[in-house]
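Quick log. Single chain, no ligands specified.
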Amino acid sequence: MMERRLYRSHDKRLFGVCGGIAQFLRIDSTLVRVGVVVLTVFTGVPILLYLLMAMIMPKEPHWSYASDGFPMHDVTYSGHARMNDLDQEIDRLEKRALVQEVYRLREELGKYKGL
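-> predicted structure:
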């Protein structure tokens, strides 16, 4: 039996968190989105949890569509291709920002080592 993992989904409105939870639970993503909206209106807590999960959950790998029983996305669809390019650009910018942060932290540590 293949292990199920929680990923941010390609079926996304904002970050893919609700779509990923829906795929993990094997339910319709609309139900998860409605649940999040209702809980947010009454408690406000899901906003913080949603943002934390968007930062923590890994993106869904492209190969996971083959085994989860959900229909595969049409790769020839130009909107999906543009979203894929956008995802790759976001990944590249995130990596670049992390590298810049590492250099900045090294400089800060260098200042304190000199003291």
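Residues 50 and 99 are 26 Å apart (CA to CA).
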